[in-house]
Amino acid sequence: MSAIRRIIARADRFLLLLIATVALAAVLPARGSAVAWVEHGTTLAVALLFLLYGARLAPQAIWAGLAHWRLQLLVFASTFVLFPLIGVGLSAALRGWLPEPIVTGLLFLCLLPSTVQSSIAFTSIARGNVPAALCSASLSNLIGVVLTPLLVAQLLTSASGGLSLEALRDIALQILLPFVIGQLIRPWVQGWLHAHPVLTKVVDRGSVLVVVYAAFSAGVVAGLWTQLSPLALLAILALSLLILAIVMGATTLASRAIGFGVADEIATVFCGSKKSMASGIPMAAILFPSHRVGLIVLPLMIFHQVQLFVCAGMARRYAARPPE
Predict the structure, then answer these.
(1) Gap between the Cα atoms of 279 and 283, Å rounded
(2) Residue 228: strand, helix, or coil
(3) Which CATH number covers residue 264?
(4) Distance of alpha carbon 270 from alpha carbon 116, whole angstroms
(5) 3-state SS class at 128
(6) What are phi and psi of 223, to 5 degrees?
(7) Any stretches that span the bilayer, and where are they (predicted)?
(8) 43 located within any domain
(9) Cβ–Cβ under 8 Å, residues 220 and 29
(10) In Å, what is the CA distance from 84 to each residue of 42, 89, 131, 321?
(11) Is residue 264 part of a domain?
C-alpha cells in the first residue's frame, strides 16, 4: 500500500511541475532570440536522455527474459500491433470531430513503447513476474527507439507530411547515436549511475519539462491553443480511459487463453498497457513541427496520468489475492 502511495505522490508532484511548466509557457513563451536558446536546450536534453537510457538498459536482462517468449511476444503484440490498430481506428473516426493535432497525438500515443520504471514497479507491487516485466519493458524501449519513428513515418504521413531528411537526421543524431554511445559506455558508468539515481531522475523529468515548455511555448506563439475547448479535454480523458480499458481487457483475456499463471498475467497486463511519456515527448519534439508539438503531446500527458491511477488500483487488487 505504501509503495502505491509513493508512486501516486511522485506522479502528483511531477504533474504539478508539468502544469507549472505549461503555465510558464502560456505567460512567458519564448520569443525572438530566446527561441534559439530553448531549441538548443531541447536538443541537448533529448540527447542526454537517450544517452542515459542506453547506459542504464542492460542487454543481459533482455536476453535472460527471452526464454519466456510467449509472454514477450504478447507484450510486443499489445504495444506495437494492438495499440497502433486502436490508434488508426480512433484517428479515422475522430478526424473532423477533434482538432487535427489532437487526433494526431492520439495516434502518436498508440505508437510509443512501454514504460520501464512503472511497469516493473506495479508488477512488483502486484506480486507478478518481475524478471519477465523487466525484460518486456526493456525490450519494448529498445525496439521503440527504432520502431516508433518508422511507425510514425508509415501511419502519420498524411497528418504530418511524412519524415523529412532533416527529421531522419535528427532521429539519428539525437536518439540513435546517444543511445548506442550509452550502450557502449555502459560497462564503465553503470555502477556510478546506479549509485547516483538522482541524476537519472533529474535528466528524465528535466528533459520532459524542457520539451514541454518548448512545445507549449511554440503553440502559444502560433495561436494553436485557440483550437482547444474544455469539451476536447474531456474527450481526451474519456478516450484515454477507453484505450486503456480495451488494452488491459485484451491482454488479460489473452493471458488467460494462453494459460499463463497469475504472475505472468500481471507482467503482461502492466507491460502491455503502458506508454512512455519520458521517451514519447522528446521523440515528438524531433518528429513533428515545433508549433504543433504542444497539442500533439497533450493526449500522451493525460493518458500517462490515467494509466498511473488505474494501474495503481489494479496492482492493489492483484496484491490482495491469496498467496499461491
Answers:
(1) 6
(2) coil
(3) 1.20.1530.20
(4) 10
(5) coil
(6) 75, 20
(7) 44-66, 73-94, 106-126, 133-155, 167-185, 206-225, 231-254, 266-288, 294-315
(8) yes
(9) yes
(10) 27, 9, 26, 33
(11) yes
Q: Is residue 298 part of a domain?
A: yes
How do the pLDDT tens digits run along the chain, 324 residues long? 455 556 555 556 766 887 888 889 888 888 888 888 988 888 888 788 778 877 877 777 667 667 788 999 999 999 999 999 999 999 999 988 998 899 999 999 999 999 877 787 788 878 888 778 878 887 888 788 889 888 888 887 544 445 555 666 776 777 778 888 988 999 999 889 888 888 877 887 788 788 788 877 877 787 766 767 889 889 999 999 999 999 999 999 999 999 999 999 999 999 999 998 878 888 888 888 877 888 899 999 889 888 888 888 888 888 888 876
Q: Is 141 inside a domain boundary?
A: yes
CA distance 263 to 183: 30
Helix (H) / strand (E) element for 215: namely: helix 197-222
Would you list the DSSP string of 273-318?
S---HHHHHHHHHHHS-HHHHHHHHHHHHHHHHHHHHHHHHHHHHH
Domain span including residue 65:
2-319
How many domains does the chain contain in total?
Answer: 1
Neighbouring CB atoms inside 10 A of 246's CB total 14
In three-state secondary structure terms, 148 is helix
Residues 131 and 266 sit within 8 Å (Cβ to Cβ): no
